[in-house]
Amino acid sequence: MTKIAFITGITGQDGSYLTELLLGQGYDVHGAVRRTSSLERSRLAHLYADATIYNRRLFLHYADLDDPTTLRRVLFKVKPQELYHLAGQSHVGLSFEIPETTCEFTAMGTLRLLEILRDLPDPPRFFHAASSELFGRPSQVPQTETTPFAPINPYGCAKAFATQMVRIYRETHGLFAVNGILFNHESPRRGENFVTRKICRAAAAIKKGLQNELTLGDTRAQRDWGHARDYVRGMWLSLQHATPDDYLFATGKLHSVQDVIETAFAALALDWRNHVKFDAHFLRPAEPLQLVGDASKARTVLGWSPQTPFTALIQEMTRAELDTLA
Ligand code: NAP
Ligand code: GDD
Question: Does 155 qualify as catalytic in the annotation?
């Protein structure tokens, strides 16, 4: 029988890659979308355009994370076997400016979904997109599934609440609920105001003579960056295992924003020194330190490992930007 998956956040970077993966595995995929003033959902456009997929194997339903009645109705109707919960305000810097909506969607939105699952006669397996931002300024480097939470921004705090709730619902209500502790993952579909995409996009625009300057905040900041396609495979694998648990997904390698700049500009034979400027507007009130993950558990238990090295990721993103401008 055809398996049915439901995705919140289907229009986002990860939602689009996960949809492709699940369709490729033979699933019917349902997704929740918000009503916006535009119907443009560019990351799914290629799937809409395919008459063999849209409204045959891929179905979209209007539902917001702060609208539990609608979510409940849709989930009762669709009866998914797997639910991937990816929706939320995902920008850490912006979470300082809009802390209430960040917590409303990311923390309370997750709790509302867990409450709905409790009431379903046959609850789906549930994946929650947790984050390395749980660890903030961690006591342990690299981090593992047992590293204590120490979030330092509203986004990390909201994710910590949601992650702990997932554990509570797994342990006390017996739900098949999994936290995937995801370190930074990027792709040509990354939102334009995340640093890797911003840099790759600017490098391509500079190459084409459409832009001259790129303004950035802290270029010494470091992250553990992988490819989104690898991370959605981890999400899927974590729901195929016999028992629910938490898994950390990371490459285990730290790079700086400066490394991203140098790799992207070098890919287009540009000298970054002529173009990159500092702008304090992009500094954050607090920066996490040494967020780098040890994904041994995912490797041993799920057979997961990241396939795309940092340099290949940034080169792919830069080339994709150049192609878009061509
Ligand atoms: P993204 O590109 O920003 O996508 C976020 C998705 O959530 C979009 O589909 C968005 O819909 C939806 N959404 C936001 N608020 C909503 C609401 N109130 N109701 C319904 N839908 C809502 O994020 P992503 O990179 O794919 O990340 C997916 C998840 O993983 C997020 O929860 C993020 O916090 C988490 N995560 C990501 C990373 C990473 O490096 N990418 C790392 C750790 C954790 P619209 O299209 O309508 O805006
Ligand atoms: N966005 C942005 N824009 N970041 C900048 C800039 C800039 O102009 N200049 C420097 N940075 C630095 C930020 O201060 C941060 O230290 C680093 O670049 C990465 O920023 P983002 O790309 O915005 O990602 P993030 O690490 O804050 O958050 C992402 O990864 C988390 C996992 O650790 C998001 O995807 C989160 O949703 C995710 O949980």
Answer: yes
Which of 62, 64, 74, 86 for mutating ligand 1's site (highest number of atoms within 8 Å of CB)? Answer: 86
Number of domains composing the chain: 2
User: How many CB atoms sit inside 10 A of residue 278's CB?
Assistant: 12
143-157 pLDDT tens trace? 999 999 999 999 999
User: Which CATH number belongs to the domain containing residue 209 in this structure?
Assistant: 3.90.25.10
Q: Ligand 2 pocket, 133 CB below 6 A?
A: yes
- 136 with 201, same domain: the answer is no
pLDDT at 116: 98
Number of C-alpha atoms within 13 angstroms, CB side, residue 219?
16
Residues ≥6 apart with Cβ < 8 Å to 71: 32, 63, 65, 112, 113, 116
CA distance 6 to 24: 15
The residue nearest atom 45 of ligand 1, judged by CA position, is: 11
Q: For residue 230, what pLDDT is reported? A: 98
- Please name which ligand lies nearest the alpha carbon of 60: 1
pLDDT of residue 326: 76
Report the nearest atom of ligand 2 relative to the CA of 279.
8
Show the low-confidence residues of the chain (pLDDT under 50): none
Domain that holds residue 37: 4-186+225-252+295-302
Tell me how far the alpha carbon of residue 119 lies from the centroid of ligand 2, in angstroms: 37
pTM of the model: 0.98
With the most atoms of ligand 2 within 8 angstroms of its CB, the residue from 94, 131, 179, 223 to mutate is 223
Assess contact for 25 and 236: CB atoms under 8 A: yes
Return the pLDDT at 40.
Answer: 77
